[in-house]
Design a protein that fits this description.
Layout: H1 2-10, E1 33-37, E2 41-42, E3 45-49, H2 51-62, E4 67-73, E5 78-83, H3 89-99, E6 105-106, H4 109-120, E7 125-127, H5 132-151, H6 158-177, H7 179-182, H8 188-192, H9 198-209
Antiparallel strand pairs: 1-5, 1-6, 2-3, 4-5, 4-7
């Protein structure tokens, strides 16, 4: 998905109310919660989960008649499924099977106990569309990285660097969280022209073409 977005960006280049686990009344019995290990870390920002990848998964899970809530932890390594009281073993097994297509494996034993303790703390878990917050954070991380790449090859005044970072953050945020925006080509000059000259825009384009994932020695 990110590759497609970058092609859109280079080719010419919502805030939803957040729901935190802390706001969710954690009175659910532990036998009504299942935990799954998932590979949903963000390649461009490995320290957090990938909101754009996780969002459709969480929303699909919550459309299942046996699921009450579905949550992703901040690191993108666990999904918590809160079952409806009337859900039965068969329905739960079907959801677990569905999760396998996203390389999810159910967490059991002591790891489950630890995961339940983390989930019950109410900190660092995102439900459904609230993972857009992770996408917004990812956008800022990528923007800062690209600005540093430009600064390594061109002199950029502090205010221009700050303005460029804000503009790039906004661009990536819209690409990652708004499907309608992601279909529209965006020209680099339109995004960065206020802060960069033609040569610097070319440097930025090359920086993007090198990929938004951290290169060796980058954060």
């Amino acid at each position: 998905m990110k590759t497609r977005l970058l092609v859109v960006v280079i080719s010419g280049l919502l805030y939803l109310p957040s729901v935190s686990a802390e706001e969710n009344k954690m009175g659910t019995a532990t036998n009504q919660i299942s935990l799954f290990k998932v590979p949903l870390q963000c390649p461009a920002a490995p320290q957090i989960g990938c909101g754009s990848h996780a969002k459709p998964i969480l929303l699909e899970l919550e459309r299942d008649s046996s699921v009450s809530e579905a949550w992703l932890n901040r690191a993108g390594t666990k999904i918590a499924v809160v079952w409806k009281p009337e859900s039965n073993a068969g329905a739960r097994s079907n959801v677990a099977t569905k999760l396998k297509k996203w390389d999810a494996t159910e967490i059991q034993g002591k790891s489950r106990d630890q995961g339940l303790e983390e989930f019950s703390s109410g900190k660092g878990w995102y439900r459904g569309a609230a993972v857009d917050r992770l996408s917004e954070e990812e956008a800022g991380i990528i923007a800062a990285r690209l600005v540093r790449r430009v600064q390594a090859k061109a002199t950029l005044a502090k205010e221009k660097a700050k303005g460029l970072q804000v503009a790039l953050t906004k661009m990536f945020k819209e690409q990652f969280t708004n499907e309608n925006v992601s279909q529209k080509p965006v020209r680099l000059k339109d995004v960065a022209g206020e802060y960069l000259d033609e040569n610097q825009i070319q440097i930025l384009k090359e920086a993007i073409e090198n990929g938004v994932r951290p290169l060796p020695n980058e954060k």
